[in-house]
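Figure-free illustration: sequence to structure, shown twice.
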Amino acid sequence: MSADRLFRSLPPARAALLAVLVLLLWSVVGTSWFLRTYLGPVTPDQVLFHLQNGGLDYADPRMLWRACRCLMAVLALTGASLWLLRRMRRWHGRALLAVLGMGAVVSVQATVSDPCEPEPDGGDYLARHYVDPRDVGAQPPAAKPDVLVVFVESLDEAYTRPRAPGAALLPQLTRLQDEFQTLGELHNLSGASWTVGGMFSALCGVPLQPVGLMSHNSLEYSRRFFQGGQCLTDLMASAGWDISFYGGASLKFAGKGRFLQDHQVARRFGAEEWRRRGVAVPSEGWGLLDSELLAQAWADMQRPRQGDAPRMSLLLTVDTHGPNGAHDVSCLPGDDVDEDDEPADIMREALRCTDHVVAQLVQRFLAQRDGRPKVVWVQGDHLNPEPLLDAELQPQPRGRTVFHALVRVDAKGHPLPVDDQQRNFTHVDILPTLAEAIGWRWQREPHRLGLGVSLLAQPASATLAEQDGMATLNARLSCRSPLFQRLWMGVS
């Protein structure tokens, strides 16, 4: 009877292969579960980009510990499955393997979705619409403003609309948004659905794609970051702006530091840089939390200027990072902070903290009376894949969108007129919009840069989201683009 056992009847080499197969299947199930639980549904681009650019050892240690626990569970389930296979009849064992295989397939399908749908003629959608900033002859303004751009981690527009009016999650940013200018609905493209992707798409006008991962040139690709493309920071640096980046997380995570360095952000601060300055960075979490991060950023922004150079300051917060935000005990004095709070309580606290310190930074920046015009742009870097407080927010019949607000003031501190409008746009439209808000002008392809259209243009031009619809736009831009790969490598 024992000869009828599937595992025992196999030669040693095949039994070893079977053990590897079982481990692989459970690894697929475990990895998919981990991604779905802690990051929400993901795209192949998101997974491949992080594999290519690395830096996972600089992620939140709590997430790494969760990953270790998931790995231990995978090993335990593999051991249990092999124990069962040694005792099962042949057809029972095959049925167990079939169930494991189907479970792996279902788990991947529930976790990873690829929206790519090529154009009917097989053409390169990105190349068809891309306007290279290097080719338009952009001219900077005569009066160069100081610029503040804040990317707030995973900030949904819906956080400004709680179901209960008295349960405001972002009271100060909601008020600032009412005072400033919003431009309609900022939709999240697939290639802008993670932090570096959201920042890159907004500053460079194209969604981020992984390139060269499976090719013999993969190492060469990974050492470059859009080398042949030009981003807003390149334009600004070439015209004399002094550009700084302030982030709480490590610059080594997911290629962020290389992106900033390759696109002329001269001064870059992440977790390691803050430690070298003597700032106490928490050992757990993603890095320096928002209360201290924005205090340090503001202090650095008060440094003496080099000559009369205008400044551009980029910030990226961390407190509201998924899956449930972070305790920031020094943020709101008097708050009842309990380390054992439920995840929803922690996220509410994180939102209140980030709301307070970001609004305070913006107000301080605008309150400077130094005779310089100023431009402020605040936005979520991307949507949180799994909105923890979704049940507390008003329904969004047309889908979730990203928080954003724009304000421009003249040299005397007077806000410039705003044109209230309701547009449908994506991260790629931010590049030309911010360029025009800062005062850049260009004659060739007016109001267009990258794949975007300036939302300040009069008369208005249709964005790609308005022209083709979000479903088609996302499907086309999720496909591999030969032009993007040439721009990445700096090949004309």
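We now fold a second protein in the same way, so the two outputs can be compared directly.
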Amino acid sequence: MTPLVRFYARFLPAQAIWLAVTLTYALGIVSVLFFGNESARDVIYIDMENDR
């Protein structure tokens, strides 16, 4: 169980937990798509190549 599922389990009946979790994640994805900054073209990555 994820912390989000445990949180919803305290307040919702068992049948509604997965729907609430699904809607929460969907809202998060939609929020990122709508409010994300398109002008940020920088990519942060970690180079895992060995320098031998």
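Summary for the second example: The helical segments are 3-11, 14-35.
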